[in-house]
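Anyone? Bumping this.
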Amino acid sequence: MAPPSRPLAEVMAAHTPELMALPGVVGTAESRMPDGRPCVLVMVAKSTPELRAKLPRELEGWPVRIEETGEIRAMPDTSQ
Amino acid sequence: MNRFALFVVVALSGAAVLVLEILGSRVLGPYYGVSLFLWSALIAVTLAALACGYALGGRWATRVPSGARLSVALAIAGLWVLALPLLRVPVVHAAGGLGPRGAMLVAAIVLFFPPLALLGTVGPYAIRLASRRVEEVGRVSGDVFAVSTLASVVAAVATGFVLIPVLGVTKLLVVIALTLFVAAAIARASAGVAGALILLVAGAGLAAAALARPHRLPAAVLADADSPYAHVRVLDWKGQRFLLLDGTTQTVVNAETFEPRQAYVYAAELAADLFPGRGRLLLLGLGGGSTVRVFAHRGWKVDAVEIDSTVARMAAQFFRLRPFHANVVIDDARDYLRRTSATYDIVFFDAYGSGALPFHLVTREAFAEAKARLAPGGVLVANVETVGWRDPLAHAIVATLKADFREVVALPTSEPPNALGNVVILASDRPIEVPEESLGDPVGALEDDDEHYRVISRHHAWENRYVPEHGRVLTDDWNPSALRTEAINFADRKWTKRVIPDSLLAD
């Protein structure tokens, strides 16, 4: 993985629209990998193999972490 | 009984003890908040139960040292753990009249003392079964304690970091119960394989039944999750959408328009009126994102720090928070303040939940770190839930801010002035004067319900501004805020129960 060429916030701003365009992606945030490295957090409604396959593993040198934190027992999103 | 098998039983029961202790905060947190007091109650109950278990286990082991007897204790503990989801609501309700501290202590005793005491019997029993000669007792007991404690260490890390976030409370209780049935079967195997198989099959059957038990959330509950930090629930009730953390209200919005229905958001918005144009906001505590959206709609650039990524996801999924509203950072607020080099016109501490107040965010040191990130003329804002305008907590936070800021003003939102509500505190080295004309016209806003609520909230907060005079500075070293937040937490829960039916608040 090439080292990042610009700050994480700039990379997030540049790539968030394309990430949000993927069905199932509900948001993005700056976060950290388990080892403490800063990363792009992609928050998903349901982490399916199909969705994971569409998401990048890194963005301009910053690692991408996909998160469906906790089990949400829920009706579908009603706020769209 | 085979020594290796015995140590496996010791490890499984030692792990179960710590998982249960930690899980106790999630079983009872939605009813009492995860506070210093709840943790004290859980730790006290765990230690008392283990002490009883050690004493009883030693006596039983002396009289009847058999793996079969040990398996009975483990199986009963497993059954009790399986029953916890069914027991907790009646127990919590029955303890309701004892006051917050008494109720959480009694609930912790009733729910957790029996299985933990039974697990406490395992250690002395194992020592007796594994010791063939008196000379061995020292080494065997050392090994038993070491194995049990190491298993507890692994379980403690796994529970907080992996198991609760991934499995949630109910499934994890089933996993613990199943683990205890496996331990019981191993202990029983010394007396015959048939008995062990019966225990395994019975345990698996009961666990499957517990998992298959329909867990239907009411239709009004949109989402329900256990994060590493809290039990998170989103629900719609009477035209409003609520974000609840550990059973207390974090965010309320109009369920149709998604405009805030908490006056404090608009009281805090007054800080933006101190600036001629758009500025930059650092929000510490995202919640449902109401504050972010209000400032973003005014053209402010917002960085929002939220420690709990589940909350951030709920904000995006159920409260219409969009990436163009804010740059969201998943981090601890103070960690971010120390790490960032950015400067802001406003730093807003909005991380003081009513269920629990992060004490490290209401200290002189925390405010100094925030001040270091303020641009010249910047404003620090703190939102704190209180019981009344003159709540000692508001006084203490104002006193703390006064130590480092020239101007401090408190904006109340509750009415009447002794009711539960929020006090928004503004602090700056510049004069804090909001132009009257920027408050808005309440009559002109009558046609738009959301705008009317906003304007009324702004007027109320500004026109009733005051400066609390009697408080003591809170520091990282001296900070008894938990003593006060208990009463606020209790008042918030009473208010929430009046607004939202019990059936929607927790399982």
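Late reply, but here is one note on the structure posted above: The CA atoms of residues 302 and 326 of chain B lie 5 Å apart.
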